[in-house]
Design goal:
Elements (H helix, E strand, L loop, with lengths): L1 H20 L7 H7 L2 H10 L2 E2 L5 H9 L3 E3 L5 E4 L1 H10 L5 H12 L8 H4 L3 H13 L8 E2 L4 H20 L8 H4 L8 H7 L4 H4 L4 E3 L4 E4 L2 E2 L2 E2 L1 H12 L5 H22 L11 H15 L1 H7 L1
Antiparallel strand pairs: 1-3, 2-3, 4-6, 5-6, 7-8
Helix pairs in contact: 1-4, 8-9, 9-14, 13-15, 14-15
Length: about 300
């Protein structure tokens, strides 16, 4: 259509003005305009006008009727509208409803980290901390990693962190950090306390399942209102293993977690309050691990 040809002139003029000033986001004028301030938008539109003398009268009237162009600061000079940009970019397949809503969701409805794999993937130290908490079953505030009470308890948590390192290293899940670097003594602070304390992104990376009470206590928010969340546990297992597990690997993970719980709970928790060493939680862990494989696609979308 001849009107489309003239509308594209408005669009190309604006896009070229924009390109000269800044990087265009997603190759879209529409998306880029959502990123810049109102003063810049208005100035760019005023610089990308076309005089009515350059457009056939019937085409001008049609574009105005469809609200594809607008008069801004003076009669006779016209600029493209949001609807006009949308039409052009939709025709060029640069934008559609799905792309726009995805952009808006990332920009305004999330913490900005969701689709950045680098910012959501657990690093080696975070994997070790998380697997330690899972294997010890620190699943509530009453069953937390408490690094305040005694040197003996801190030493025991350090043993479990080292055991988690060895286990994950053998599984090929630790690739960058060396054991001697992670467990190196720094100053007067206990190594276990230092490892947990210098761990700023775990809460965001686990959708706030990882909790810090503010007093050297850390736990996984898996149990509330007398209910164990298999879904949350499944998600955490996926964060560790990405759903890439053979039957043999599943057995080894569960055996390790059950052994740690059985042998170490007495040294870590008040057993009158710590319920997670009961045999029923052995089954819940296995069910959660299996679900992390079944639900792999769901967790990949959530990140």
């Amino acid at each position: 259509m001849i009107s489309d040809d003239y509308l594209n002139q408005f669009y190309i003029l604006l896009k070229n003005k924009l390109k000269r000033e800044r990087k265009i986001k997603n190759n879209s004028v529409f998306i880029t305009f959502l990123e810049i301030n109102s003063t810049s938008r208005f100035r760019l539109l005023n610089e990308a006008t076309i005089n009515s003398n350059e457009i056939p009268k019937n085409v001008l009237n049609l574009l105005l009727d469809k609200n594809y162009i607008q008069a801004l600061t003076s009669i006779g000079n016209y600029a493209i509208t949001a609807k006009g940009v949308w039409y052009c970019e939709n025709q060029l397949k640069l934008i559609d409803e799905e792309k726009l809503l995805s952009y808006i969701n990332k920009k305004f409805f999330t913490d900005g980290q969701k689709n950045s794999q680098e910012k959501t993937t657990l690093d080696d130290k975070e994997k070790i901390i998380l697997f330690t908490m899972i294997s010890a079953r620190a699943f509530s505030e009453k069953s937390s990693v408490n690094l305040k009470p005694s040197e003996n308890k801190r030493d025991k948590w350090l043993e479990l962190l080292e055991a988690s390192y060895d286990f994950l290293k053998n599984f090929g899940k630790i690739n960058k950090i060396r054991k001697e670097d992670l467990f190196k003594k720094m100053g007067n602070e206990h190594i276990a306390s230092s490892i947990f304390r210098h761990n700023n992104r775990m809460a965001q990376k686990t959708k706030l399942i990882y909790k810090y009470t503010g007093d050297y206590e850390y736990f996984l928010d898996i149990y509330s209102n007398s209910e164990f969340s298999t879904e949350k546990m499944s998600y955490l297992f996926w964060k560790l293993f990405q759903g890439e597990l053979s039957e043999e690997m599943i057995d080894k993970i569960i055996e390790h977690c059950n052994r740690i719980s059985k042998n170490e709970s007495i040294y870590l928790f008040n057993l009158s309050e710590h319920i997670f060493s009961l045999p029923c939680y052995d089954n819940k862990l296995r069910d959660s691990l299996l679900d992390s494989i079944i639900s792999r696609s769901k967790w990949e979308n959530i990140g």
